[in-house]
Amino acid sequence: MPSRTAIRLIEPADAAPIAAHRTRDAEAFRRWEPAQPADHFTPEGQEARIEGLLAGFRAGTVWPGVVLAGDEVVGQVTVGNILSQPHLRRGSLGYWIATVAQNRGHAGRAAGLALRVMREELGLHRAEASTNLENLPSQRALRRNGFTPYGVAHAAILLDGEWRDGLLWERILGD
């Protein structure tokens, strides 16, 4: 039976477990994420990053969360690029799950929980996401949550020294 999945707003105390996951998983994530400075993999670097995320949360531009398996932090889920004008109510969903917790459904369940936050807490109408064309597990998690692909962003992100295409996803959350 898989561990219970939950999400909550990120806290400064999450810096150490996130840094531990990021350090261990740096090579595994290299093909999916942009290069990071060395301090990204330290608790101090994560503390600074979390402070910035929480400042964005207070400004209403981001909802930064952690993914929990039981009580253990196993990843992050973020709603970024939040636009909350009456005619533009959307945000971009992003997430990662530590390699030690992958293939247990946490990404899909965390995405579903984040969609609920987007709709019920943030009042958003549209959810967007982007995946690397080869990231089939992430695409499956999005499909399970009602996302559909709507285009390709060519040469959209620099990953591992090469400009890569991104598959763009959308889901209408309702009124």
Walk me through the structure.
There is one protein chain. This protein is α+β, with helices and mostly antiparallel strands. It has one domain: Aminopeptidase (3-Layer(aba) Sandwich). It has four helices and seven strands, in the order βααβββαβαββ. The chain has helices at residues 15-29, 43-59, 106-121, 136-144; strands at 5-9, 63-69, 72-85, 88-97, 126-132, 148-159, 162-172. It has a seven-stranded mixed sheet with strand order 1-2-3-4-5-7-6, with helices on both faces. A hairpin with a 2-residue loop joins strand 3 (72-85) and strand 4. The longest helix is centred in the first third of the chain and has 17 residues, at 43-59. It is globular. The termini are far apart. The model has no long low-confidence stretch (mean pLDDT 94).
Observed structural traits:
175 residues, alpha+beta, Aminopeptidase, 7-stranded mixed β-sheet, 38% strand
Q: How do the helices and strands line up, and which of them pair or pack?
A:
Layout lengths: L4 E5 L5 H15 L13 H17 L3 E7 L2 E14 L2 E10 L8 H16 L4 E7 L3 H9 L3 E12 L2 E11 L3
Parallel strand pairs: 4-5
Antiparallel strand pairs: 1-2, 2-3, 3-4, 5-7, 6-7
Helix pairs in contact: 1-2, 3-4
